[in-house]
Amino acid sequence: xxxxxxxxxxxxxxxxxxxxxxxxxxxxxxxxxxxxxxxxxxxxxxxxxxxxxxxxxxxxxxxxxxxxxxxxxxxxxxxxxxxxxxxxxxxxxxxxxxxxxxxxxxxxxxxxxxxxxxxxxxxxxxxxxxxxxxxxxxxxxxxxxxxxxxxxxxxxxxxxxxxxxxxxxxxxxxxxxxxxxxxxxxxxxxxxxxxxxxxxxxxxxxxxxxxxxxxxxxxxxxxxxxxxxxxxxxxxxxxxxxxxxxxxxxxxxxxxxxxxxxxxxxxxxxxxxxxxxxxxxxxxxxxxxxxxxxxxxxxxxxxxxxxxxxx
Amino acid sequence: xxxxxxxxxxxxxxxxxxxxxxxxxxxxxxxxxxxxxxxxxxxxxxxxxxxxxxxxxxxxxxxxxxxxxxxxxxxxxxxxxxxxxxxxxxxxxxxxxxxxxxxxxxxxxxxxxxxxxxxxxxxxxxxxxxxxxxxxxxxxxxxxxxxxxxxxxxxxxxxxxxxxxxxxxxxxxxxxxxxxxxxxxxxxxxxxxxxxxxxxxxxxxxxxxxxxxxxxxxxxxxxxxxxxxxxxxxxxxxxxxxxxxxxxxxxxxxxxxxxxxxxxxxxxxxxxxxxxxxxxxxxxxxxxxxxxxxxxxxxxxxxxxxx
Lengths: 311, 307
Known about the structure:
The complex is a heterodimer of chains A (311) and B (307). By secondary structure, chain A is mostly helical. Chain A has helices spanning 2-14, 16-43, 49-66, 71-90, 100-105, 110-131, 134-138, 144-177, 198-227, 230-250, 282-306; strands spanning 185-189, 192-196. Chain A has one domain (2-46, 95-306). Chain A has a two-stranded antiparallel ribbon. By secondary structure, chain B is α/β, with parallel strands linked by helices. The longest helix of chain B has 17 residues, at 167-183. Chains A and B meet through helix 1 and helix 7 of A and helix 2, strand 6 and helix 3 of B.
């Protein structure tokens, strides 16, 4: 299996496109940091964090009193109240979004890594068909499910490598472009307000967005191996990625929305204050995603191992 | 003594959408022998070969390779087989060497030394590290052969291997196949519609039509001698030949008779003393093409081609 994985890895990096993608990852992240820096320099606000924290606190309190919040949203509001009160009481400034710490605390690597991994996942089986190499590949004394597994693992590792390249680039550009602005991230843990390291939170965000990368890439992998067309696989995957939240919005009145994949794809929502549906929690999302993941894989493997190669 | 076959097809069948593509096909292939696989377009050559190498699932019957059934022990059975299915499509964006490395990793026990050895065998040392995309068709064929030989297969299966090769390339390829069949006792199975090609290359041919094996013969079998006789007037010639006891058949302007070489001088004398004008008498060799068309029926062939 290791040798099959080596093969997939070799094929992947022998393509110019892969290097271009890795380069694109670096360039885009630096460019985004540059744009953030530039737009921030235009704003030039020296607002007092205490004033904005005070107003946030009042907002959260009033929405809690109105009693319309429930589930995740309610929990978030309650935590925010605790954190805001703690900040004001102990004079602890929050992280500034456009600071070195803010960049590392909340790295925006996921969506670029997702796009690029989807392209690779869509093509890894489909390209063997379009190149005609599938005949060479499947006439070896290796069972088809092993070949499939090596390909899937190659995608996952590629995704991880991209995320890491992205995170390292983010860290470097955070240090190059942005000054340190102090502040301390806080979170509520077990009812108490605790300090959070920007590094562990950054990695945690990376992990949450990587789940989305896995799900979307697995979907692309499935479409690519069923329809043998990487274009179709990329198209469908990105369609789902971009229209998912719209579909959730349209169907939000219905119970079924809880079981749709779109509702759960972006797990970073549990760290921001915007949850698509109040009835869901992180473990529930993970469970739903796991079911979808297994279904995608079963479909991919079954079609691939049963197919007669005629072309 | 009958040698043990290296590959055995046992009543192999394939049904696609209720249509029998391959119907109860049985065939044995022996070490050191090159077997040609002939058949008109759509007869099921490619389907048979694809079932033998695991690209297609069989509907019935069994493929046994060196004692292992393909369906029971796919990996063990296929590890004895080297395959070139049509044009060997390689990864164009990688060098020839990386392609070989790729396929070597999918076999057990192929060392780096073995890769170098095979590269030398097919004469590609100078360009093996260049990208396959820059290779000519002939070089790609050689690389295709190299990947099929990496693991020293006992059985080599080739589907239309000389497609797109120039005459020199075909010849080289043919001689190479003969060499490995003889020196390494490899059994070779070649499908082709190039009849002259098969005729020059094979020890034995199997003919398939409409999914059924219709003929299997050794090329080395001594053919009954035939002679072509052309004399005037034709009807008298025919009578005379008949009265002499020759099996006579009318072909073009003359006749083909079944006769031994030693009978010919006597026949010439007889013809001239009978006052017939003898224009030609020559050995008549029925080409594989004639035999093939005879077997599969020219009309049938034209029909399938027209579809």
